[in-house]
Write a structure and sequence with these properties.
The chain is an all-alpha fold. It has 9 helices and no strands. The chain is globular, with a radius of gyration of 16 Å.
């Protein structure tokens, strides 16, 4: 298998782990109190990301998220061709993750793993929250992956940043910050309400996150981990 094919497969598998484990955490928390459910879901996705990073991250860079790949493209760390291939791999992995949930449960169960706006949350509010939290997530990702001092804890830092984001966002947007994570359950669960928010807002957030990263780090000494 060529190096490029290995990277694409790693992105498929990493996104598969993220969506499958995170979705199962949502289903596991449905019978719990709302506060406990939020904690289960947040750590479900965060630790799923951590598992995916340790399993496959050194092969592909561990993006598992089109917003992360977009930020890496803007920062000059990957080509347009690789970006396109990564996005296809990520969406494919997310679909496979949701198909696995479907095989183990039902279409109705998959639908409950969708990202949906909370009560009284308007579309523009959800868009703003998803974009802003994605921006800060990407600022962390971009920084720790260019920091020699943070190299040993990069995977943990990225994963627990996602945990905090989920703790904050689940009641309001369902927490996505990842187009692939939302596309998989939406297509397999046949529930597409407000999907555009979860596709576009994280990509906008990726651009904002890159701007924040460059504003803070330009002129500082950087050493890429890649």
């Amino acid at each position: 298998m060529s190096p490029s094919a290995r990277r694409w497969l790693a992105e498929v598998l990493g996104t598969y782990v993220l969506v499958l484990f995170g979705s199962m955490a949502i289903l596991a928390g449905t019978e719990r109190s709302s506060g406990t459910q939020i904690i289960v879901v947040a750590f479900g996705f965060g630790l799923a990301l951590l598992a995916g990073l340790y399993a496959f991250g050194e092969v592909s860079g561990g993006h598992y998220n089109p917003a992360v790949s977009l930020a890496m493209l803007i920062d000059g760390r990957m080509s347009v061709a690789d970006f396109a291939a990564y996005v296809v791999a990520q969406v494919g992995g997310a679909l496979l993750g949701s198909i696995t949930v479907l095989a183990a449960s039902s279409r109705e169960a998959v639908a409950t793993t969708n990202t949906v706006l909370g009560p009284n949350v308007e579309a523009w509010e959800g868009f703003l929250l998803e974009a802003l939290f994605t921006a800060f997530f990407l600022a962390v990702v971009l920084k720790v992956t260019t920091s020699a001092s943070n190299a040993k804890t990069a995977f943990i830092g990225i994963s627990f940043t996602l945990v905090v984001i989920y703790l904050a966002l689940v009641p309001f947007t369902g927490a996505s910050v990842n187009p692939a994570r939302s596309i998989g359950p939406a297509l397999v669960g046949d529930y597409n309400a407000d999907l555009w928010i979860y596709v576009i807002a994280p990509l906008v957030g990726a651009v904002i996150g890159w701007v924040l990263y460059k504003a803070v780090t330009t002129g500082s000494e950087e050493k890429s981990l890649e």
